[in-house]
Amino acid sequence: MSYLVPSEFVTKMVDAGEAKIWMSTRDTLIRAFMAGAILALAAVFAITINVQTGEPLLGAVLFPVGFCMLYLMGFDLLTGVFMLTPLAWLDKRPGVTIPRILKNWGLVFCGNFAGAFTVAVIMAIVFTYGFSVEPNEIGQTIGVIGESRTVGYKEFGAAGMLTIFLRGVLCNWMVSMGVVGAMISTNVSGKVIAMWMPIMLFFYMTFEHSVVNMFLFPSGLILGGNFSLMDYLLWNELPVVVGNLVGGLTFTGLTLYTTHVRTAPKRNLV
User: Fold this and answer.
1) How large is the greatest C-alpha to C-alpha distance in the chain, in angstroms?
2) For position 147, what pLDDT does the model report?
Protein backbone atom coordinates (compact mmCIF):
# COMPACT_ATOMS: atom_id res chain seq x y z
CA MET A 1 0.00 0.00 0.00
CA SER A 2 3.07 2.29 0.34
CA TYR A 3 1.71 4.01 3.44
CA LEU A 4 3.02 7.47 4.34
CA VAL A 5 3.40 8.33 8.01
CA PRO A 6 1.26 11.24 9.34
CA SER A 7 4.10 13.74 9.41
CA GLU A 8 4.55 13.12 5.66
CA PHE A 9 0.94 13.19 4.51
CA VAL A 10 0.00 16.18 6.68
CA THR A 11 2.79 18.15 5.02
CA LYS A 12 1.25 17.11 1.70
CA MET A 13 -2.08 18.49 2.95
CA VAL A 14 -0.50 21.90 3.58
CA ASP A 15 1.21 21.82 0.19
CA ALA A 16 -2.10 20.94 -1.49
CA GLY A 17 -3.87 23.80 0.27
CA GLU A 18 -1.22 26.25 -0.91
CA ALA A 19 -1.40 24.94 -4.49
CA LYS A 20 -5.16 25.43 -4.60
CA ILE A 21 -4.82 29.05 -3.48
CA TRP A 22 -2.53 29.82 -6.43
CA MET A 23 -4.47 27.85 -9.04
CA SER A 24 -5.89 29.92 -11.90
CA THR A 25 -9.56 30.87 -11.88
CA ARG A 26 -10.16 28.85 -15.04
CA ASP A 27 -8.59 25.68 -13.66
CA THR A 28 -10.32 26.06 -10.30
CA LEU A 29 -13.74 26.37 -11.93
CA ILE A 30 -13.19 23.46 -14.33
CA ARG A 31 -11.97 21.13 -11.60
CA ALA A 32 -14.81 22.14 -9.29
CA PHE A 33 -17.39 21.72 -12.06
CA MET A 34 -16.23 18.20 -12.79
CA ALA A 35 -16.14 17.30 -9.10
CA GLY A 36 -19.73 18.47 -8.59
CA ALA A 37 -20.93 16.63 -11.69
CA ILE A 38 -19.23 13.33 -10.82
CA LEU A 39 -20.44 13.41 -7.21
CA ALA A 40 -23.96 14.11 -8.45
CA LEU A 41 -23.81 11.06 -10.73
CA ALA A 42 -22.61 9.00 -7.79
CA ALA A 43 -25.62 10.19 -5.79
CA VAL A 44 -27.97 9.14 -8.61
CA PHE A 45 -26.18 5.79 -8.71
CA ALA A 46 -26.62 5.20 -4.98
CA ILE A 47 -30.28 6.27 -4.97
CA THR A 48 -30.97 4.00 -7.94
CA ILE A 49 -29.45 1.08 -6.04
CA ASN A 50 -31.52 1.90 -2.96
CA VAL A 51 -34.75 2.09 -4.96
CA GLN A 52 -34.14 -1.03 -7.03
CA THR A 53 -32.83 -3.25 -4.22
CA GLY A 54 -34.44 -1.76 -1.12
CA GLU A 55 -31.00 -2.01 0.57
CA PRO A 56 -29.65 1.42 1.65
CA LEU A 57 -26.44 -0.18 2.89
CA LEU A 58 -25.63 -1.39 -0.61
CA GLY A 59 -26.05 2.13 -1.97
CA ALA A 60 -23.74 3.46 0.73
CA VAL A 61 -21.15 0.78 0.01
CA LEU A 62 -21.04 1.75 -3.68
CA PHE A 63 -21.49 5.54 -3.49
CA PRO A 64 -17.76 6.19 -2.78
CA VAL A 65 -16.91 5.14 -6.35
CA GLY A 66 -17.74 8.70 -7.43
CA PHE A 67 -15.64 10.30 -4.71
CA CYS A 68 -12.68 8.09 -5.57
CA MET A 69 -12.95 8.89 -9.27
CA LEU A 70 -13.04 12.64 -8.81
CA TYR A 71 -10.09 12.76 -6.41
CA LEU A 72 -7.98 10.42 -8.51
CA MET A 73 -8.59 12.86 -11.39
CA GLY A 74 -7.46 15.81 -9.25
CA PHE A 75 -10.84 17.56 -9.10
CA ASP A 76 -11.93 19.67 -6.11
CA LEU A 77 -14.91 19.66 -3.77
CA LEU A 78 -15.86 22.56 -1.52
CA THR A 79 -15.69 20.23 1.46
CA GLY A 80 -12.07 19.43 0.67
CA VAL A 81 -10.84 23.01 0.19
CA PHE A 82 -12.59 24.01 3.44
CA MET A 83 -10.14 21.73 5.21
CA LEU A 84 -6.96 22.17 3.14
CA THR A 85 -6.58 25.84 2.24
CA PRO A 86 -6.64 27.30 5.81
CA LEU A 87 -3.72 25.02 6.71
CA ALA A 88 -1.50 26.90 4.24
CA TRP A 89 -2.44 30.16 5.99
CA LEU A 90 -1.76 28.70 9.43
CA ASP A 91 1.61 27.46 8.15
CA LYS A 92 2.38 31.04 7.04
CA ARG A 93 2.98 30.07 3.42
CA PRO A 94 4.07 33.21 1.46
CA GLY A 95 1.19 35.12 -0.12
CA VAL A 96 -1.57 32.97 1.36
CA THR A 97 -4.15 35.37 2.79
CA ILE A 98 -7.71 35.15 4.06
CA PRO A 99 -9.13 37.03 1.02
CA ARG A 100 -7.40 34.55 -1.33
CA ILE A 101 -8.79 31.63 0.68
CA LEU A 102 -12.30 33.10 0.51
CA LYS A 103 -11.92 33.65 -3.25
CA ASN A 104 -10.94 29.99 -3.68
CA TRP A 105 -13.95 28.85 -1.64
CA GLY A 106 -16.26 31.05 -3.71
CA LEU A 107 -14.92 29.74 -7.02
CA VAL A 108 -15.12 26.11 -5.90
CA PHE A 109 -18.68 26.63 -4.61
CA CYS A 110 -19.75 28.08 -7.97
CA GLY A 111 -18.03 25.33 -9.94
CA ASN A 112 -19.44 22.55 -7.76
CA PHE A 113 -22.94 24.00 -8.00
CA ALA A 114 -22.73 24.38 -11.79
CA GLY A 115 -21.60 20.78 -12.19
CA ALA A 116 -24.20 19.35 -9.80
CA PHE A 117 -26.98 21.46 -11.31
CA THR A 118 -26.04 20.38 -14.84
CA VAL A 119 -26.41 16.73 -13.83
CA ALA A 120 -29.67 17.57 -12.02
CA VAL A 121 -31.16 18.97 -15.24
CA ILE A 122 -29.86 16.09 -17.37
CA MET A 123 -31.20 13.44 -15.00
CA ALA A 124 -34.57 15.20 -14.68
CA ILE A 125 -34.86 14.98 -18.47
CA VAL A 126 -33.89 11.29 -18.35
CA PHE A 127 -36.36 10.49 -15.53
CA THR A 128 -39.27 12.17 -17.38
CA TYR A 129 -38.44 11.47 -21.04
CA GLY A 130 -37.90 15.18 -21.67
CA PHE A 131 -40.66 16.22 -19.21
CA SER A 132 -43.26 14.38 -21.26
CA VAL A 133 -44.26 11.98 -18.44
CA GLU A 134 -44.30 11.98 -14.65
CA PRO A 135 -40.95 11.26 -12.92
CA ASN A 136 -40.11 7.59 -12.56
CA GLU A 137 -39.67 5.97 -9.16
CA ILE A 138 -36.11 7.22 -8.77
CA GLY A 139 -37.13 10.78 -9.62
CA GLN A 140 -40.01 10.63 -7.15
CA THR A 141 -37.64 9.39 -4.45
CA ILE A 142 -35.33 12.37 -5.03
CA GLY A 143 -38.29 14.71 -4.62
CA VAL A 144 -39.19 13.09 -1.29
CA ILE A 145 -35.59 13.45 -0.08
CA GLY A 146 -35.74 17.15 -0.85
CA GLU A 147 -38.91 17.58 1.19
CA SER A 148 -37.80 15.58 4.23
CA ARG A 149 -34.44 17.34 4.45
CA THR A 150 -35.76 20.91 4.17
CA VAL A 151 -39.29 21.31 5.51
CA GLY A 152 -38.59 18.23 7.64
CA TYR A 153 -36.03 20.31 9.56
CA LYS A 154 -38.05 23.52 9.34
CA GLU A 155 -40.94 22.16 11.39
CA PHE A 156 -38.59 21.78 14.38
CA GLY A 157 -37.39 25.39 14.24
CA ALA A 158 -34.14 26.10 16.10
CA ALA A 159 -33.77 22.43 17.06
CA GLY A 160 -34.02 21.51 13.37
CA MET A 161 -31.41 24.12 12.45
CA LEU A 162 -29.04 22.78 15.10
CA THR A 163 -29.60 19.24 13.84
CA ILE A 164 -28.86 20.07 10.22
CA PHE A 165 -25.76 22.05 11.25
CA LEU A 166 -24.42 19.11 13.27
CA ARG A 167 -25.17 16.69 10.43
CA GLY A 168 -23.04 18.97 8.25
CA VAL A 169 -20.25 18.95 10.85
CA LEU A 170 -20.26 15.16 11.08
CA CYS A 171 -20.38 14.83 7.30
CA ASN A 172 -17.26 16.79 6.56
CA TRP A 173 -15.41 15.27 9.46
CA MET A 174 -15.73 12.02 7.53
CA VAL A 175 -15.47 13.43 4.00
CA SER A 176 -12.29 15.35 4.81
CA MET A 177 -10.89 12.11 6.20
CA GLY A 178 -11.52 10.73 2.73
CA VAL A 179 -9.64 13.68 1.20
CA VAL A 180 -6.71 12.91 3.50
CA GLY A 181 -7.04 9.25 2.53
CA ALA A 182 -6.08 10.18 -1.03
CA MET A 183 -2.72 11.38 0.33
CA ILE A 184 -1.68 8.58 2.67
CA SER A 185 -0.66 6.14 -0.04
CA THR A 186 1.38 6.36 -3.22
CA ASN A 187 -0.57 3.75 -5.18
CA VAL A 188 -4.12 3.71 -6.49
CA SER A 189 -5.41 0.74 -4.49
CA GLY A 190 -4.17 2.22 -1.23
CA LYS A 191 -5.73 5.60 -1.99
CA VAL A 192 -9.08 4.02 -2.92
CA ILE A 193 -9.28 1.91 0.24
CA ALA A 194 -8.42 4.88 2.45
CA MET A 195 -10.98 7.11 0.72
CA TRP A 196 -13.72 4.50 0.63
CA MET A 197 -14.18 3.91 4.36
CA PRO A 198 -15.17 7.37 5.66
CA ILE A 199 -17.26 8.19 2.58
CA MET A 200 -19.31 5.02 3.00
CA LEU A 201 -19.88 5.93 6.64
CA PHE A 202 -21.10 9.48 5.93
CA PHE A 203 -23.49 8.40 3.18
CA TYR A 204 -25.09 5.56 5.11
CA MET A 205 -25.56 7.80 8.16
CA THR A 206 -27.32 10.39 5.93
CA PHE A 207 -25.07 13.21 7.08
CA GLU A 208 -25.42 16.45 5.09
CA HIS A 209 -22.93 17.12 2.29
CA SER A 210 -23.23 20.56 0.68
CA VAL A 211 -22.17 19.40 -2.80
CA VAL A 212 -24.38 16.29 -2.86
CA ASN A 213 -27.21 18.60 -1.82
CA MET A 214 -26.44 20.91 -4.76
CA PHE A 215 -27.72 18.02 -6.85
CA LEU A 216 -30.46 16.56 -4.67
CA PHE A 217 -32.45 19.68 -3.96
CA PRO A 218 -32.43 21.38 -7.36
CA SER A 219 -33.40 17.95 -8.73
CA GLY A 220 -36.24 17.75 -6.23
CA LEU A 221 -37.48 21.21 -7.22
CA ILE A 222 -37.33 20.39 -10.95
CA LEU A 223 -39.14 17.07 -10.35
CA GLY A 224 -41.97 18.63 -8.36
CA GLY A 225 -40.86 18.26 -4.74
CA ASN A 226 -43.12 20.06 -2.27
CA PHE A 227 -40.63 22.63 -0.98
CA SER A 228 -39.37 26.02 -2.15
CA LEU A 229 -36.04 27.44 -3.23
CA MET A 230 -35.94 29.46 0.00
CA ASP A 231 -36.57 26.27 2.00
CA TYR A 232 -33.59 24.70 0.26
CA LEU A 233 -31.27 27.64 0.90
CA LEU A 234 -32.26 28.44 4.50
CA TRP A 235 -33.09 24.97 5.76
CA ASN A 236 -30.38 23.00 4.03
CA GLU A 237 -27.62 24.49 1.87
CA LEU A 238 -26.48 27.43 3.99
CA PRO A 239 -26.38 25.72 7.41
CA VAL A 240 -24.84 22.63 5.80
CA VAL A 241 -22.06 24.71 4.21
CA VAL A 242 -21.25 26.23 7.61
CA GLY A 243 -21.37 22.81 9.27
CA ASN A 244 -19.12 21.32 6.59
CA LEU A 245 -16.60 24.12 7.14
CA VAL A 246 -16.55 23.63 10.91
CA GLY A 247 -16.40 19.83 10.75
CA GLY A 248 -13.67 19.48 8.14
CA LEU A 249 -11.42 22.22 9.47
CA THR A 250 -11.68 21.51 13.20
CA PHE A 251 -12.00 17.72 13.45
CA THR A 252 -9.65 16.80 10.59
CA GLY A 253 -7.48 19.68 9.37
CA LEU A 254 -6.56 21.34 12.64
CA THR A 255 -6.22 18.16 14.67
CA LEU A 256 -3.81 16.61 12.18
CA TYR A 257 -1.88 19.83 11.63
CA THR A 258 -1.41 20.70 15.29
CA THR A 259 -0.23 17.26 16.33
CA HIS A 260 1.88 16.30 13.28
CA VAL A 261 3.28 19.62 12.00
CA ARG A 262 3.09 22.11 14.86
CA THR A 263 3.70 19.53 17.52
CA ALA A 264 3.97 20.41 21.19
CA PRO A 265 7.44 20.30 22.80
CA LYS A 266 8.56 16.78 23.59
CA ARG A 267 8.57 15.77 27.23
CA ASN A 268 11.85 16.07 29.12
CA LEU A 269 12.27 12.82 30.97
CA VAL A 270 15.47 13.87 32.72
Assistant:
1) 80
2) 86
